[in-house]
């Protein structure tokens, strides 16, 4: 789960991580008032108006603007950015509508540093990555000049060792006494934050050194480990439903895993691996999957029904492939869920069903007796070929 | 022969009174697995299904019933603790079925297990089966057949798919291991491949990986240097777009790393034959064994 920059910075502040003064704003009037307060508090007439969307690359997309002319200019920028369809490298061509702003004090920046904490799967440790090349596309830096990225791994027994933080500070050119103190304190705070908030990513790009020599987190990106949601009831208040795919959100509420894709063949599968495999085999035979849908191992009839209805309601779906290899999942439960879904919404596209595993006979019987026009498949390969043929232009529905 | 578990394996089930735990304990018992104990704190002294003795701690189950392998069905928040308890009790193998354990919990658990004799399979996996001897986990027992092919996989349902294909061709399995698809888990591909390589009764291996991370590439390098037996593989997720989590927390392509193409190239370079589709896993292995 992702959160906004302003939310990440509010959390940073609780861990003693220096962030610029700022206020979120949900309207132009709020933005104007926030700019007014910031300018009064800092005595400097420069504020930054920042679009709050979950995708990165906001600056290049025109979602971050500096107002040097005081409150009136800040208001004008807020009017421009709020409500705009912000297109960045991460949003896709449709962009993301800006519904929230963050109004922040302007800083005199000397230089920019990249700093991030994430999980290194291969080392099974939290990794701290930093580079003097802040503000840049860090993946590009990692690709072109890997020697410019400094990485350290944290042993969970010891935690972040002070020497590691010092070593990183020296590597980043922050060896002077006061900067060393500020940086090691900030990094310690970030590590504690990462652990306590169950993050999977914390990225500060850029971390800046101001002209006065202070170290400040100018940006903040925070992603939480979805598996830890159960011990973080506060995440409910941080979630911004506008930033999430409404269909994926609905699926989550039902307890199934769903990802929208660009194709036209809807898939209902049990198990993440088989669901990925089903998408692959559709692609292999020349079709395009419309979604990844894993009903999970222990889905109820109601969950299967809701999952199937999500596929049925999608306009782009021209055919549906149900691929079940029942381990824990019972085939009769799947069949009953499908029939219940079609009773409410009907079935106007070809449906190919492959059922295998537990209670398969009972499942087939339910489908046979439903009166639905279903083509059954003897195997995964057979089913994939049948559905791809059925949705081809000119094929009889 | 087989790897890790056989007819003499004595199993304790942690979380035996929960909904999933009890359902699958029954299925494992019906398969013939020696479930010698169950653990649910507070239920010590009672019996599961009027036969399997229950204990408050894994330590008692090990001491009194000689359990050497634990299978965990404890809910996600308590699952890491359950793994630690099983390791401390001296279980040589811990199989954690639980899905959805916070990844930072697993970072600590893996660190804790370093240098200890306990092996961990999972979490978020179907478990392990040696057909017609011992089933520990949630896989459907009836699709398996005793034989000489080892199956190892990050994905539960794709394991069933591979096993189903093998059995349909009349080919049995020595052992089938689901290692799970979480970013931080126990035994990896190489750990299991080493065992299959040394097991005289395993004559070939099907390995099922997926997008994300670098485990398949590392396994490919190991196979190239060490593997004496034919290996067929499948990499799931070729159709998955970058940056999207496909159910398994681990199955995500980030920063162009961990793509299906990258993994397939590494495996093919190691002499592994990669199945063109998930429907061809058994046929691909058969083509190698002729």
UniProtKB/TrEMBL annotation, chain A:
It comes from Polyangium fumosum. Its cofactor is Mg(2+). Binds 1 Mg(2+) ion per subunit. The keyword Amino-acid biosynthesis does not apply. Succinyl-CoA synthetase functions in the citric acid cycle (TCA), coupling the hydrolysis of succinyl-CoA to the synthesis of either ATP or GTP and thus represents the only step of substrate-level phosphorylation in the TCA. The beta subunit provides nucleotide specificity of the enzyme and binds the substrate succinate, while the binding sites for coenzyme A and phosphate are found in the alpha subunit. It is an enzyme of class 6 (ligase). The lineage of its organism: Bacteria, Pseudomonadati, Myxococcota, Polyangia, Polyangiales. Pathway: Carbohydrate metabolism; tricarboxylic acid cycle; succinate from succinyl-CoA (ligase route): step 1/1. Substrate binds at residues 270, 327-329. This is Succinate--CoA ligase [ADP-forming] subunit beta. PANTHER family: SUCCINATE--COA LIGASE [GDP-FORMING] SUBUNIT BETA, MITOCHONDRIAL, SUCCINYL-COA SYNTHETASE BETA CHAIN. Gene3D superfamilies: ATP-grasp fold, A domain, ATP-grasp fold, B domain, Succinyl-CoA synthetase domains. Belongs to the succinate/malate CoA ligase beta subunit family. Keywords: ATP-binding, Ligase, Magnesium, Metal-binding, Nucleotide-binding, Tricarboxylic acid cycle. Mg(2+) binds at residues 205, 219. GO terms for cellular component: cytosol; succinate-CoA ligase complex. ATP binds at residues 50, 57-59, 104, 107, 112. The gene is sucC. Its EC number is 6.2.1.5.
UniProtKB/TrEMBL annotation, chain B:
SMART domains: CoA_binding (SM00881). One of its GO terms (molecular function) is succinate-CoA ligase (ADP-forming) activity. One of its GO terms (biological process) is tricarboxylic acid cycle. It holds the Pfam family CoA_binding. Substrate binds at residue 160. GO terms for cellular component: cytosol; succinate-CoA ligase complex (ADP-forming). PROSITE patterns: SUCCINYL_COA_LIG_1 (PS01216), SUCCINYL_COA_LIG_2 (PS00399). It is an enzyme of class 6 (ligase). CoA binds at residues 17-20, 97-99. Keywords: Ligase, Nucleotide-binding, Tricarboxylic acid cycle. Its EC number is 6.2.1.5. The active site is at residue 248. It catalyses: GTP + succinate + CoA = succinyl-CoA + GDP + phosphate; succinate + ATP + CoA = succinyl-CoA + ADP + phosphate. Residues 4-101 form the CoA-binding domain. Pathway: Carbohydrate metabolism; tricarboxylic acid cycle; succinate from succinyl-CoA (ligase route): step 1/1. Heterotetramer of two alpha and two beta subunits. Belongs to the succinate/malate CoA ligase alpha subunit family. This is Succinate--CoA ligase [ADP-forming] subunit alpha.
